[in-house]
Amino acid sequence: MSDVMHSVQFANQKLANRFALAPMTRTSAEADGTPNQAMADHYEAYAKGGFGLVITEGTYTDNGASQGYGNQPGIINDAHVAGWKTIVERVHAAGSSIFVQLMHAGSQFQANHYTDQPIAPSAVKPKGSPLGIYGDQTEWKTPKSMTLEDIQFAIAGFVQASQNAQAAGFDGIELHGANGYLLNQFLSTYFNQREDSYGGSLENRLRIMVETIKAIRAVVGKDFTLGIRLSQVAVTDPDYQLPEGEAGFRQIVEAVRDAGADFVHTTDGDVRRAAFIEGDKSLADVAAEVQGVALIINGDIDETNHPDFAADYPQALLAIGKKALANPDFVQRLKDGKEIMDMDFAMLQPKATIANEQAWRRKQSA
Ligand SMILES: Cc1cc2nc3c(=O)[nH]c(=O)nc-3n(C[C@H](O)[C@H](O)[C@H](O)COP(=O)(O)O)c2cc1C
Asked: In this protein, which residues make up the domain named NADH:flavin oxidoreductase/NADH oxidase N-terminal (predicted)?
């Protein structure tokens, strides 16, 4: 236990322990994207519950098509920054660091305060259906294939959002490059069918990620913690694999490091899942082999298996999703030897909001 509970240096952060709250969308901001009191209470609970690092839910970055869900928080104007500032201060007061996850929805677009038109690398709809827990939409819209101007606008949004994150007092930024959202769509040969310099070879498909990281690094300075979450799978396609396999994923991790990322955050159904079209390595295995970049691992880490992950990935932070949702005080419970509850998906019904989670908790204690 001591190996996960001691304080660690992670990129430029001194953290109380190796547990991170995984980013989880709660669709509980005001309709205009302003973070509110309920969100402040929510994030503070994880800090008080012992997580060394809190990573926020995916937060939109521009007043174009970046927002993907109704009541998703943004970080694009003064009201958003003020809302986040309160949250950051409360998390800090409870002793944790906090990173904001910056997200552009791309074609996984269900609701947006500013436009009805999704944009994406190509005019390709996601597979399957929109996610019921994030809204009432039943069909995907066909996205517009992004022009070069659209790409520049999206990058500029990430850059401005990063400056706003600094103004709000965040300790770092995690770009959402996973789970089928915009930056991940560019990597994917399903979503990205472009024939220009942003499509085709992996080097081209990586271009927007690299340009975004470089552009952010240029404005936030060398000491501000910046990283990116990476997966192969999308929430709308749990089986997607890069045609370039393990070597391709290594190329991605090296490219984001060379562009200026301090850390990568791998996410998969299970940290150890053999992820690639060949061999038996996981995303985390390959990322851990790359020198010069810090690592967060995620995927089914719990109260019993975490010591093994901590030992096998000795430099990594362990990000916890569903178990944290069920137990905001997961880390404190581990310290105290208390029972850890399983997550009940009823907590996210009919929508994945904080209010529905609270209603669920009231029902349990009634
Ligand atoms: C309700 C919910 C919302 C999520 N929202 C996000 C998100 O905004 N950004 C993200 O990168 N992952 C999101 N995820 C994925 C989690 O961060 C995590 O990767 C996933 O739950 C697997 O980790 P776990 O096995 O510890 O739960 C979400 C997961 C859940 C359950």
From this structure: 8-338
Q: How far apart are CA 25 and CA 27, in angstroms?
A: 6
Whether residue 1 has pLDDT greater than 50 = no
Phi-psi region of 279 (alpha: psi -120 to 50; beta: other; left: phi over 0): left
Query: 277 C-alpha to center of ligand 1: Å?
Result: 24
In this structure, are residues 178 and 229 in contact, taking their beta carbons and an 8 Å threshold?
yes
Which value, in Å, is the radius of gyration of the alpha carbons in the chain? 19
| Structure confidence by residue, pLDDT tens digits, 235-280 | 999 999 999 999 999 999 999 999 999 999 999 999 999 999 999 9
Ligand 1 lining (C-beta closer than 6 Å): 22-25, 57-58, 101, 176, 178-179, 229, 267, 298-301, 320-323, 348, 352
Domain membership of residue 317 as a residue range: 2-365
Total tally of structural domains belonging to the chain: 1
Tokens of 194: 């472009």
The two tokens of residue 57 are: 């839910």
Kindly give the distance from the C-alpha atom of residue 15 to the centroid of ligand 1, in angstroms, as a whole number: 21
Residue nearest to atom 11 of ligand 1 (CA): 23
Q: Which residues are catalytic?
A: 181
pLDDT digits 0-9 by tens, 49-98: 999 999 999 999 999 999 999 999 999 999 999 999 999 999 999 999 99
Residue 160: CATH number of its domain: 3.20.20.70
Give residue 128's region: left, alpha or beta (phi > 0; psi -120 to 50).
left
Under a CB-based contact definition with an 8 Å cutoff, are residues 194 and 207 in contact?
A: no
Strand ranges inside the chain, DSSP E: 8-10, 13-15, 19-21, 53-59, 97-102, 119-120, 144-145, 172-179, 225-234, 263-267, 294-298, 317-320
